[in-house]
Design goal:
Protein name: tRNA 2-selenouridine synthase
Distance between the termini: 45 Å
Pfam family, one: AAA_SelU
Family: Belongs to the SelU family.
Radius of gyration: 25 Å
EC number: 2.9.1.3
Order of helices and strands: EHEHEHHHEHEHEHEHHEEEHEHHHHHEH
Structural class: alpha/beta
Helix content: 55-70%
Largest sheet: 5 strands, parallel
Number of domains: 2
GO molecular function, one term: transferase activity, transferring alkyl or aryl (other than methyl) groups
Shape: globular
Oligomer: single chain
Strand order of the largest sheet: 7-8-6-11-12
């Protein structure tokens, strides 16, 4: 009898290799970290077989699938599955519900490759449910603390120095602000939730009972926090990094200009600067209504001048004035509003090193 596994905790804690037999369109909507998509059927085949299943039943759908997949295509797919199984003897395969598709792949690997390769019982759906419940349980059972502060005060730098942090921006591949888009795209919301849940699972397995998260809105770029996590964040204590920065515009200049430019060049080569400039202008356009017409026009001209100088000689100095206006007239007022709204939840405030010392001592008290 062919084997299956329902120990989802072991799969994610130990990064077991996973082969996803779902169609590419299903995989693109959401998957687990590090998974390889080796589908039984492509998108068109899946659509035709699904229609046949609904109209004529399972046996007719299986027969259609066998007709659609020629001997040559079938051989290529089996070769890919067998190769994966041989290279990853401690792995598993799965389909959406752990049903017919993964059973077929499992049987063909056995018949053609002689390998009794296990599949995940319950498939993608069961593993996804397990990860969602992992986050819900952490919110209910763990001590959560939010780290807040004005833009440019080094919150992210403080967060990554903590052993018990959950880096929402890192998992979302976004810096969490209107100018936070990176050169590479964001994951799907499902991928974001899965990555975060695996992080939570591993940290809890290591004995952590307290997590520090950056004080974010419900969405980080296009990625939304799970409802339980967002609701939990509305009542937990807040620690605030003081309203200071290393140099006016220093951190935002590094993030929004220097690092972003380097990312675009690394990804797009000669087209990098033009795409980077387009991204900055697009981000400014997105907040035009909040800035108001006159302020927006002034900042737009400042940005154009700064981009022209950067293109001409590499200097980013003109961005300091522009970023100063962005902080003073856009980010800071929003933060002050939120700080006043959440003032009763602030349990500590100080400069970055003092905040780090406080948070490290705080987690030691929960161990």
């Amino acid at each position: 009898m062919l084997r299956d596994c329902t120990d989802y905790r072991d799969i994610f804690l130990n990064d077991r290799p996973l082969m996803d037999a779902r169609a590419p369109i299903e995989f693109s909507h959401g998957a687990f970290p590090g998974v390889v998509n080796l589908p039984l059927m492509n998108d068109r085949e899946r659509e035709q077989v699904g229609t046949c299943y609904k109209q004529h039943g399972q046996q007719a759908a299986i027969a259609l699938g066998e007709r659609l997949v020629s001997a040559e295509i079938r051989e290529q797919r089996i070769q890919g599955w067998v190769e994966f199984a041989r290279n990853n003897p401690d792995g598993y395969l799965y389909c959406f519900r752990g049903g017919l598709r993964s059973q077929i792949v499992q049987q063909w690997i056995k018949d053609e490759g002689g390998i009794d390769y296990p599949r995940v019982g319950g498939g993608y759906k069961a593993m996804r449910t397990f990860l969602l419940e992992t986050v819900d349980q952490a919110v209910a059972e763990c001590d959560l603390v939010l780290l807040g502060g004005m833009t440019g005060t080094g919150k992210t730098e403080a967060l990554v120095q903590l052993s018990n942090s959950l880096d929402l921006e890192g998992h979302a591949n976004h810096r969490g602000s209107s100018f936070g888009k990176r050169a590479t795209g964001q994951p799907t919301n499902i991928d974001f939730e899965n990555r975060l849940a695996v992080d939570v699972l591993k940290q809890r397995a290591g004995g952590l009972r307290q997590f520090v998260l950056e004080d974010e809105s419900r969405v980080v770029g296009s990625c939304a926090l799970a409802c339980s996590l967002y609701r939990g964040n509305q009542v937990v204590p807040l620690v605030r990094v003081g309203d200071w920065s290393d140099k006016p515009g220093g951190r935002p200049l590094q993030d929004y200009v220097i690092d972003l430019h380097a990312e675009f060049v690394a990804v797009h080569g000669e087209l990098g600067f033009a795409l980077y400039a387009e991204r900055l202008i697009s981000s400014l356009n997105n907040i035009q209504r909040r800035l108001g017409g006159e302020r927006y026009q002034r900042m737009y001209l400042q940005m154009e001048a700064a981009l022209s100088e950067q293109a001409r000689n590499g200097s980013v100095e003109l961005f300091r004035e522009w970023i100063g206006v962005l902080l003073r007239d856009y980010y800071d007022p929003m933060y002050v509003f939120q700080r006043e709204k959440k003032g009763g939840r602030i349990e500590f405030a100080g400069e970055r090193e003092a905040v780090l010392e406080y948070l490290r001592e705080r987690v030691n008290q929960t161990l």
